[in-house]
Specification:
Keywords: ATP-binding, Cytoplasm, Kinase, Magnesium, Metal-binding, Nucleotide biosynthesis, Nucleotide-binding, Transferase
CATH topology of the largest domain: Rossmann fold
Helix content: 25-40%
CATH architecture of the largest domain: 3-Layer(aba) Sandwich
GO biological process, one term: ribonucleoside monophosphate biosynthetic process
Largest sheet: 7 strands, mixed
Number of helices: 8
Shape: globular
Pfam families: Pribosyl_synth, Pribosyltran_N
Domain Ribose-phosphate pyrophosphokinase N-terminal: 9-123
Catalytic activity: D-ribose 5-phosphate + ATP = 5-phospho-alpha-D-ribose 1-diphosphate + AMP + H(+)
Number of strands: 14
Length: 313
C-alpha cells in the first residue's frame, strides 16, 4: 500500500515537460519516463515505461489549446488507473475550458463541468491547479481539489520593485475580488475597468471606476488571451495620467497577435507564470516560475501535511 514512505512518481504530459522537469527537480525526484507513440493520422498513445503499481502518481499537464493537451492528460490518467496506481493526481497548472463555467446563453455547454467529469472518469483521484477562471469550478468535482493562488509568488516580486503610489486594477468587474485581495496585502487603492463587448474578445467600450492619476498601476487578472482588454486598459490609464502600468496575469495563453499588442502598448511589464510555455520571447514579458510552489504542495499532499500556508488569497 502506498503511503508517505513510498516515493512519489512525477510524470509529464508533453506540453508541460519543461515545467514538470523543474517541479521534479524542486521536489527531489527524477521525472518519470513516458514514451508517446504517434500515428500518421494524428492519433497518439502515451506509455509509462516504469511500474506504477500501488504508488502515488502525479501527472503534470496544462490543458491549454489544442484539445490534444486535454486528451493527453485524460489518456495518461486512464493508463495510470489501468496500471494499478493507488493515488493519481492531475497537476494542472492551467485548467483549460474554464471560461465555459455556466450557460450564458441558450443551447451552449458547460465545458468546465464536462472536463471535470472526464478527468474523474479517466482516473484522477485528486486535482491540483492554480488560479481557476472561476472559483466555483472546484464544486464541479467530486474529488478533492487543491486550488493554489499565484499571488504567493507574485507578491514577493511586486514588493521587490519598491514602487510607491501603487494602485491595483481589475480589467473587468469579475476580477474585482482578486484585485481587492492584492490591494489588501499591498495596502493600496483599487480601480475597476468597466467594459462592454461587441462579441467575444472584442471590446466596444471601456471606462475606469476610480482614479489613476500619478499612480503606478498594477493590473491583475487570471489569464491573458488576446491581450485586447489588458492593452486597452493600460493605454487608457496612461491617458488618464498614470505614472506606469504593469500587469500580472497568471496564465499566458497569448493567442493571435497578443505579443504584438503587448509590445506596442503602454504596458511597462507583463508578469506571468510558466503554467503555459511562451510561444516567443518578449522584452516586456517577465516569467516567474510556479515549479517550487507546485513541488511544495505535491510534497505536502504526499506526506498528508497541511498546505494552508500556500494560500495568501
Amino acid at each position: 500500500m502506498a503511503d508517505s514512505k513510498t516515493a512519489a512518481q512525477i510524470f509529464a504530459c508533453s506540453q508541460s515537460k519543461v515545467l514538470a522537469e523543474e517541479i521534479a527537480k524542486s521536489y527531489g525526484v527524477p521525472l518519470g519516463n513516458v514514451i508517446t507513440s504517434h500515428f500518421n493520422d494524428g492519433e497518439f498513445q502515451p506509455s509509462f515505461e516504469e511500474s506504477l503499481r500501488g504508488s502515488r502518481v502525479f501527472i503534470v499537464g496544462s490543458t491549454h489549446p489544442s484539445s490534444d493537451n486535454l486528451m493527453e492528460m485524460l489518456m495518461m490518467l486512464d493508463a495510470a488507473k489501468r496500471s494499478s496506481a493507488r493515488h493519481i493526481t492531475a497537476v494542472m497548472p492551467y485548467f483549460g475550458w474554464a471560461r465555459q463555467d455556466r450557460k450564458d446563453k441558450p443551447r451552449v455547454p458547460i465545458a468546465a463541468k464536462l472536463v471535470a467529469k472526464m478527468l474523474e472518469t479517466a482516473g484522477a483521484t485528486r486535482i491540483i491547479t492554480m488560479d481557476l477562471h472561476a472559483d466555483q469550478i472546484q464544486g464541479f468535482f467530486e474529488k478533492p481539489v487543491d486550488h493554489l493562488y499565484a499571488s504567493t509568488i507574485f507578491l514577493p516580486y511586486l514588493k521587490s520593485l519598491n514602487l510607491e503610489d501603487i494602485t491595483i486594477a481589475s480589467p473587468d468587474m469579475g476580477g474585482s475580488k482578486r484585485a481587492y485581495a492584492y490591494s489588501k496585502f499591498l495596502q493600496s487603492d483599487v480601480v475597476i475597468c468597466y467594459k462592454q463587448r461587441a462579441k467575444a474578445n472584442v471590446i466596444s467600450h471601456m471606462e475606469l471606476i476610480g482614479e489613476v492619476k500619478g499612480k503606478n498601476v498594477i493590473l491583475v487578472d487570471d489569464m491573458v488571451d488576446t491581450a485586447g482588454t489588458l492593452t486597452h486598459a493600460a493605454n487608457l490609464m496612461i491617458e488618464r495620467g498614470a505614472k506606469s502600468v504593469r500587469a500580472i496575469c497568471t496564465h499566458p495563453v497569448l493567442s493571435g497577435d497578443a505579443y504584438n499588442k503587448i509590445e506596442n502598448s503602454a504596458l511597462e511589464e507583463l508578469i506571468v507564470t510558466d503554467s503555459i510555455p511562451l510561444k516567443q520571447e518578449s522584452n516586456k514579458i517577465k516569467v516567474i516560475s510556479c515549479a517550487e510552489l507546485f513541488a511544495d504542495v505535491m510534497k505536502a499532499v504526499h506526506n498528508n501535511k497541511s498546505i494552508s500556508s500556500k494560500f495568501l488569497m
